[in-house]
Amino acid sequence: MLSSLRKSGKQQQTLLLALLVGISFFVGLGSAPLFDVDEGAFSEATREMLASGNYLTTYLNGHPRFDKPVLIYWLQLLSVKTFGLNEFAFRFPSAAASAIWAAALYRFTRKELGRETAFLATMFMVLSLQVTIIAKAAIADGLLNCCLAVTMFAVYTHYRTGSATSRLVAFAAAGLGVLTKGPVAILIPGAVSFLFFMQQGQLKNWFRTVLNLRALLLFLCIVMPWYTLEYLDQGMAFVEGFLFKHNVNRFSSSLEGHSGSLFYYVPVLLIGLMPFTGMLFTTLLNLKKLLSEPLNRFLLIWFAFVFVFFSLSGTKLPHYMIYGYTPLFILMARLFAETRAPRIQALWPVLFLLLFAALPLLIPMVAPRIDDLYILAVLRSALRLTGTSYMLILAGAALLIAALQFIPALSPRGRLVAGGLVFCLCINFHIMPLVARLLQEPVKEAALLSKREGYKVVMWKVYYPSFLLYSLSFAEKRAPEKGEIVLTTVKYLERLENPELLFSKHGIVLVKNNETRPRP
């Protein structure tokens, strides 16, 4: 009888996690237009791969794209051939990889710390703000995080058990990670494992592990074929574009204007871990207790290395911090029982949702201080799209999360899950769709108009790769000549004399240029 109850409880827990994964990662996957720049660039490069039949080198707008290796493009290509040329197909590989990431997190944590901790850790991951966004993004980071998690879990399992299979899994996952995003997939596992083994006084064991011939051969068999063929195809242009520009230079300098202070990732953490930000503080307050166990030290080194390394990096992007979220989710789950006032955890998502609910009241206060005509146009459109119903939905969700904390029938864990689900639903089905309508719907509609009318378009002062995908055409990025069709924003319209407006929405415009040369 007891065994049957335990089995039933395990099945219910698994089904609940599967439901949360489905809601957070898959439902509505193709409902929003692709976001620029990254989603548009990855998806357009995949479309051009499909159109050209060149499955070796990725191209964007007809030019070689050396930003990332090839694996995510191959997976998107396979998805497009299965589901068609649409947003769902481009995003499906990321959602599937994130689901595998969640399964790996649950499996590892269950083996090391038990089923209850595994459930909480996976729930934290699946419902957290940055993960639910990245899991539905047609970019490489969902896949990379999956590869990193599998690599790191296998590294620790090998350390604890000496399993040769775990070592091979670690090297295979690292190889797939290098095919996904390059050296970062071996930098993080290599540095973290070195620091951990050194702290444990087992550096000799670390060298024996990383220099294992079978594991190295497996890694090279996965990585070297594409890298070798790509170098033979593109020569030093590939080395300079991929290795130096998009890897070395990302650390040494600010690439494409993505810079920030040394404390850039502090607010990223606070917002990215929503609605479970409160558990971060619980973790920080219990650091001394955590340091007593090897697994906790491994997880802390993993998170600390990612945080410090990318804080020191010249190029900073919010999603870099996700590489260190997996260990945090496990540590937060371990410490949930230590939370003295679990109801306080709801404060963060409640305040976050109330802030978004107040946007229709805040926009009129902020708008007069803004000079950028495009931002003003977006804010005015946001004001039109966010009315009373918008405010009531978010305010109601915030109050519901608060009310859940005082339902006696719910356990602290149940309140956490219910509140996290309400928050996730608000993000995925209310806030993100609004952002997509404001920022990307105009680009898609302008592209479809251009496709229908057969326009040859010049992008001026803007860069929207998704426009290329939706219009099924290339577009030069330069100053327009007389008579050319121009995609730009209202910010730059005043530099054109007597432009003929063809399309305008939320600050995005498509115009015919009637002057010889626009004013600089």
Structural class: mainly alpha
The total tally of domains equals: 3
The largest sheet is:
5 strands, mixed
Amino-to-carboxy terminus distance: 79 Å
Strand order of the largest sheet: 4-3-5-7-6
Helix fraction, binned, reads 55-70%
What amount of the residues lies in strands?
A: under 5%
Kindly report the average pLDDT value. Answer: 90
Categorize the overall geometry: globular
The DSSP helix count reads 24
Give unreliable regions as ranges.
none
Rounded radius of gyration (Å): 24 Å
Number of β-strand runs? 7
What does this structure look like?
With 520 residues, the protein is mostly helical. The protein has three domains: 19-241 and 256-338, no CATH class; 344-439, no CATH class; 444-512. The protein is 67% helix and 5% strand. It contains 24 helices and seven strands. The chain has helices spanning 2-26, 38-52, 71-83, 87-113, 115-127, 129-134, 141-161, 164-181, 184-199, 203-210, 213-234, 236-252, 265-272, 277-285, 287-290, 294-312, 325-334, 347-357, 359-366, 373-385, 388-404, 412-439, 441-453, 465-471; strands at 59-60, 63-64, 457-459, 476-477, 485-489, 500-505, 508-512. It has a five-stranded mixed beta sheet. It has a two-stranded antiparallel ribbon with strand order 1-2. Helix 2 (38-52) packs across helix 24, helix 4 runs antiparallel to helix 5 and helix 14 (277-285) crosses helix 17 (325-334). The protein is globular, with a radius of gyration of 24 Å.
